[in-house]
TrEMBL record, chains A, B:
Listed pathway(s): Amino-acid biosynthesis; L-proline biosynthesis; L-glutamate 5-semialdehyde from L-glutamate: step 2/2
InterPro entries in alphabetical order: Ald_DH/histidinol_DH (IPR016161), Ald_DH_C (IPR016163), Ald_DH_N (IPR016162), Aldehyde_DH_dom (IPR015590), Glu-5-SA_DH (IPR012134), GPR_dom (IPR000965)
UniProt domain Aldehyde dehydrogenase: residue ranges: 9-283
Keyword NADP in annotation: yes
Subcellular location field: Cytoplasm
A GO cellular component annotation in the UniProt record: cytoplasm
Name under which the protein is recorded: Gamma-glutamyl phosphate reductase
Length: 425, 425
């Protein structure tokens, strides 16, 4: 069967999944947990094949690729966590009496079919399957090719688990080649959402090559602005955390803006802290005169996403400068301000048009788990559907259910009845 | 200035608009009302030019094109209504304490720049401008070419009104040619949403020719299912309203499904009612044997959107037949069931995956005003962002605002602090 045929045949399973009870979906998640434990030796041995093939790759990739007892344990906990989250489906989002006995409800429903393309991380496959199952969606998966054997083994074990449950095993579909990915990008109207994770250029490629809605973000050019009314000690601490706590994450900062009134006192403190962390500093003209570093020659450098211990530093003379800089160079993912001036904080929060706008805290908090969303599907910089860290609700849509008693519009159009519109929620 | 240059220069006005108070946006809406009254003779005379040019067009088009004292009065009421609606911006949608003093909020914000392409109806221009203003969005407009002079006059009057307010007049931009429309469709990343209204093929054209998110619907193939446990008298009343109350509306039915157990008793009643209304009936084999009509020869006919007093009638033998029919032929806009069996109604509401799923009432209720949304931007059959009738909230996005006190992620990653995640809403 081609991948398109597989997806078309799964389409019929959508209804079973969307009308399944939360209980049976949670039971299926726990069945996957049990089956992973029962088949762990098989999974470990398949993972070893991938590790052997990846012998020449960097440690960071091999570390993500590894699926051992420890990663298994984390996955089991994560499955239990997802099973215990509240049901994202059938939530009543609006409820209104229109007139007499006519009751209108808007309830959450699954999106339908989601395609997810992600890194070479076998544990990610398990998490994605559990989130799709929890939210009642058919899931079409493609993991990084380095994890091919591990993913195939996990996929088989998951399907084996599902055969013991009420959930159709083919709600999860595995893509194994790049041509599968190209093929599914044309299935607009069949696949409801594509979620790509990976490099900037990869996400951009997906966005440019499909008319299916895409959830995610390509760039993560985040910033920290140190205001003239900032507590400078806090500012240093936040800057170090935002840059160094995990430099390759999308929510790490690439740019530090500082108000000229405090630049002379702040930048030497920052330099000392960054030098301890071996951060390479790129400085604009004013910053260069104060702390040296590599001179920024071209404003286009502010678009750079280093994803490493490297940063652009720029001195600004007003909040308007900050807004103008962000409007031009921010990817509107996460931007943060350090200030003790409440009015400045308010204007900043109101004026900066980014998915996450932070005050006096590290940009690294931009994350579904830290936000308390239970689980994270990804971070969206789109303004449509879901913005910022996306939890299970981002995998749902809604429908309107109107229940009447023989009601017709002509009675209202001709003045015999009138709408009352009474909110019931 | 080209249309792209106009839009790029308005981009800078986005921040003024998004941080404007509800009061100043409402004042601007009322200023437009006053300016329309002050300039009504000019608007009427420009509208007369359009009517003269449209002398050979059908009455239905000329009726929509007309902007007279009566339409003006309706527009003034509609402006007052929109001004009095609650502010869709700065609504706190989620609020959570993450740990100690760290407070996370998700608040509604404008989408940014919206392009709307609509029919030759001058009153629609006024309504669209008021909805965009209320929701703090820059609006790029294109009305049907038959209304060219009227739209230009209204646009001038609206800008004149805005010059007397805090809202920048160029938040509203008028497109006057088809080439303007082609040009803006390429402004992905600048325009946040396109809302096309008009014929099926026009909406489809827009959807196929832009990577900007599109809100709307191309097809409106809606259905009514008369169950074996239906009150047949109510069913006839609902069928007549759903088909005849306004046949050219997208929420009118094109298909009537009837359970075989009641087809012999129901279809003659339906036929009598439809004949009084001059409805042309297309019947499947079983329906034909009972009430005649035009025989349906090819199942593809079920995709037909008549938009007129014409209907397809099909006899089914189970709920599964209904689901299979809808999965294949419904445009998932609005589908309704007539039944007195509560369990059947429940299964139908749960299983039918359409934007609007109705029980014992006319499909014609699928409308933002009737739903109590205050004002309707359009009806979306997309599962992303907004589904079904879309009110002002469909023109908003949200952002996350996290306010802390020097908090860093390393404290949490290294176990010195723990997330509490306490919902505050």
């Amino acid at each position: 069967m081609s991948i398109t045929e597989e997806i078309l045949s799964a389409k019929e399973k959508k209804r079973i999944l969307s009308s399944s009870s939360a209980e049976s979906r949670n039971k299926a998640i726990l069945a996957i947990r049990d089956e992973l434990v029962a088949n762990k030796e098989y999974i470990f041995s398949e993972n070893q094949k991938d590790l052997d093939n990846a012998a020449s790759l960097p440690d960071s990739i091999r570390h993500r690729l590894l699926f051992d007892q420890k990663k298994l344990k984390q996955s089991l906990i994560s499955l239990e966590d997802v099973a215990s989250l509240s049901d994202p489906l059938d939530k009543v989002l609006e409820k209104r009496s229109l007139c007499d006995e006519m009751i209108l409800k808007r309830v959450s429903v699954p999106l339908g079919i989601i395609a997810m393309i992600f890194e070479a991380r076998p544990d990610a496959l398990i998490q994605i399957v559990s989130l799709a199952l929890k939210s009642g969606n058919v899931i079409v998966l493609k993991g990084g090719k380095e994890a091919k054997n591990s993913n195939r083994a996990l996929f088989e074990v998951i399907r084996k688990a599902l055969r013991k449950t009420d959930i159709p095993e083919d709600f999860v579909i595995l893509m194994e080649s790049h041509s599968d990915v190209s093929e599914i990008l044309s299935l607009s109207g069949i696949i409801d959402l594509v979620i790509p994770r990976g490099s900037n250029s990869f996400v951009r490629y997906i966005m440019d090559n499909t008319s299916i809605p895409v959830l995610g973000h390509a760039d993560g050019v985040c910033s920290l602005y140190v205001d003239k009314d900032a507590d400078l000690e806090k500012a240093v601490k936040i800057a170090v955390d935002s840059k160094c706590q995990y430099p390759s994450a999308c929510n790490s900062i690439e740019t530090l803006l500082v108000h000229e009134d405090v630049s002379e006192s702040f930048l030497p403190l920052l330099k000392a802290a960054f030098e301890k962390e071996n951060v390479v500093m790129h400085s604009d003209k004013k910053a260069f005169s104060l702390i040296g570093g590599i001179k920024i020659e071209d404003d286009e450098e502010y678009r750079m996403e280093f994803l490493d211990k490297e940063i652009n530093i720029k001195v600004v003379s007003s909040l308007s400068d900050v807004f103008a800089h962000l409007e031009r160079y921010s990817s509107h993912h996460t931007d943060s301000i350090v200030t003790d001036n409440k009015e400045t904080a308010r204007v900043y929060a109101e004026s900066v048009d980014s998915a996450d706008v932070f005050i006096n805290c590290s940009t690294r908090f931009a994350d579904g788990y830290r936000f308390g969303l239970g689980a994270e599907v990804g971070i969206s910089t789109s303004k449509i559907h879901a913005r910022g860290p996306v939890g299970l609700m981002g995998l749902t849509s809604s429908k309107w259910i109107l229940s009447g008693c023989g009601d017709v519009v002509s009675d209202f159009a001709e003045g015999r009845r009138k709408f009352a519109h009474k909110d019931l929620l």
